[in-house]
Design goal:
It is built from 5 helices and 2 strands, in the order H-H-H-E-E-H-H. By secondary structure, the protein is mostly helical. Strands 1-2 form a two-stranded antiparallel sheet. The mean pLDDT is about 90.
Length: about 250
């Protein structure tokens, strides 16, 4: 039994080394993201917790279509190109211009001369400019503006479809992660009950320490799976919130 226990300990030591290294790498990545020196000590004040997401799919999709900054920018781009089309089309319209000019001259050295020492004149001009032929330059520029508007509209619609797909994938991932949390919790409860029974048998002298190790290992594995399920659910929830444009 002692040899078997030692073999079991040595067999899990590589997993322990990999887990400890993963913790160090995660701490380094966290420090890099938040911008603190790598030699700073970090103590996490919170813990993994389960918060169900009860938002309906249609509400989540609508929120993404309304709040995503990239979609808002795409819609403003479409409006801009639409206005540019109208501006370019107006270049082919007749132009009516009115020019008024008023001149007043004084032949006195005084700062405020008298009216009898001043002369004034006024002119007015009305001009009508009718474009007749410009080598189809304006027509080509108008077609280009319309093409730019259509391209911007297609980009906007494609982005809307991408946002809908991103929200749908994120929402479904949250639902799957929530099912994983429930399943791992149920498994953990069963493993804990089996370990409690094995502990009673061991204390009653009906089993050995080696027989107690297997239920204990099952509890540890179930706890790891439950923690990983909580992490995946929190990650999926953060991705959903980001896809909805709330952060």
């Amino acid at each position: 039994d002692l040899v078997t226990a030692r073999v079991a300990v040595e067999s899990v030591r590589p997993d322990q080394i990999r887990a400890e290294n993963a913790v160090r790498l995660a701490n380094n990545e966290l420090k890099r993201v938040i911008g603190v020196p790598f030699d700073t000590s970090i103590v996490l004040a919170d813990s993994l917790s389960y918060h169900p997401v009860e938002i309906p799919l249609d509400v989540a999709v609508q929120a993404g279509l309304e709040s995503r900054g990239d979609l808002i920018a795409a819609r403003e781009e479409v409006e801009l190109f639409s206005e540019l089309v109208d501006v370019q089309k107006s270049e082919a319209y007749p132009t009516l211009s009115l020019l008024l000019n008023l001149n007043r001259r004084a032949s006195s050295e005084e700062l405020w001369p008298e009216d009898r020492d001043s002369t004034q004149s006024a002119t007015a001009a009305l001009t009508l400019d009718v474009p007749i032929f410009d080598g189809r330059r304006n027509q080509g520029q108008t077609l280009q503006a319309r093409a730019d508007h259509v391209a911007a509209s297609e980009r906007m619609h494609a982005l809307e479809r991408d946002v809908e797909l991103q929200v749908l994938d994120a929402w479904q991932s949250v639902q799957a992660a929530a099912e994983g949390v429930i399943a791992t919790r149920a498994t953990l409860d069963l493993a804990q009950r089996a370990y409690d029974i094995a502990t009673v048998r061991f204390r009653s002298g009906l089993s050995t320490q080696l027989e107690l190790d297997d239920p204990e290992q099952d509890v540890i594995e179930a706890q790891v799976n439950a923690a990983e399920a909580l992490y995946l659910h929190m990650l999926a929830r953060a991705i959903l919130v980001h896809a909805m444009g709330e952060i």
